[in-house]
Each structure stands twice: as C-alpha cells, then as structure tokens.
Design brief:
single chain; mainly alpha; about 0% strand; rod-shaped
Length: about 100
C-alpha cells in the first residue's frame, strides 16, 4: 500500500531532488570561488613580500661583493659613531665662535 502512494508522488520528489542538487552545486561554486579569491590575494601578498626581500638581499650582496668592504670594520665604525652621538662629544654645530689667531 505504501508503494502505491509513492508512485504518483515520484515526479514531485524528483523535482525537489533536482532543485536541492542545483542549490547545493551553486553553494559549492560560491565556496570554491571565495576560497580561490582568498588564496590568490594571499599569493599576491607573499609575492610582494618575496620581491622586497629579494631586493634587500641584492643590496647586501652588492655591499659585500662590489666594494670589497670589510664588514667587521664597518660595524666597528658604526659602533664608534653611535658612542660619539650618545656621549654628546664633538663640537656643537650652533657655536658662533671663530678661530682665534
């Protein structure tokens, strides 16, 4: 008796099933699109950052190789400069005294 009731309802059940499948497909496509957009945005940010880092490495390579600098000497010179600035030694720039002969 249950099967006799379902047979006339079969076309309606099929239509509901098709509607459900179409809606699920659309939702899945939206989810995939949103994920792809987020991924491409992240990739662009990473590519930009990598480009910046590559430029910094090129500058460091140029400093080390092109000029033949002694890095330890440069670091010490920077330390010496910092200690002079911190202690306030040196001649003030706002002095108005001239040389005395």
């Amino acid at each position: 008796m249950g099967l006799e009731i379902l047979v006339p309802l079969a076309p309606f059940i099929m239509v509901l099933g098709i509607i459900w499948l179409v809606n699920n497909r659309k939702l899945e496509e939206k989810r995939i699109t949103a994920t792809a957009e987020a991924s491409s945005e992240k990739a662009a940010q990473y590519a930009s950052r990598v480009g910046e880092l590559e430029e910094r490495v090129k500058v460091l390579e140029r400093i080390i190789t092109d000029r033949g600098y002694d890095i330890a000497t440069q670091i010490e010179a920077l330390r010496d400069q910092r200690s002079v600035e911190e202690t306030g030694s040196g001649v003030p720039l706002d002095m108005k005294q001239g040389e005395k002969a």
